[in-house]
Amino acid sequence: MNARVQLFALARQLAGAEFIELVLTDGAKVGELRQSLAAGRPELARLLPHVLFAVNFEYAGDEDTIPSGASIACIPPVSGG
Questions:
Q1: pLDDT tens-digit profile of 11-35?
Q2: How many whole angstroms separate alpha carbon 1 and alpha carbon 3?
Q3: CATH superfamily label, 2-75
Q4: Measured over all CA atoms, what is the biggest interatomic distance in the chain, rounded to whole angstroms?
Q5: Alpha-carbon distance 12 to 20, whole Å?
Q6: CA-CA distance, 38 to 47, in Å (whole number)?
Q7: pLDDT band at 64, cuts 50/70/90?
Q8: What residues does each domain of the chain span?
Q9: What does pTM read for this prediction?
């Protein structure tokens, strides 16, 4: 399945893009997405263990399945005060 991941904040800066498109197997889990992004975009590899993913506007864990056509967002940790 084709997946389009929207990037925010530091992830967007590191990737130099608002979206990343990649191909995942049908029934892929969020953890597989995380691994695929790290392999395909090494500039994000250090950040990816710390990001949250949202699938169809709900936070998703590494064991959650990504449905075909899902909206996917990569949300890095935010600092500030």
A1: 999 999 999 999 999 999 999 999 9
A2: 6
A3: Beta-grasp domain (3.10.20.30)
A4: 41
A5: 9
A6: 9
A7: very high
A8: 2-75
A9: 0.92
Give the chain as a DSSP string. -EEEEEE-HHHHHHHTSSEEEEE--TT-BHHHHHHHHHHH-GGGTTTGGG-EEEETTEEE-TTSB--TT--EEEE------
Whole-angstrom CA distances from 56 to 7, 30, 60, 64 are 14, 12, 9, 12
- Rounded CA-CA distance 76/63 in Å is 19
CA 35 to each of CA 11, 24, 69, 73, 80: distance values in angstroms, whole numbers, following the listed order: 15, 11, 19, 15, 28
Amino acid in position 28 = A
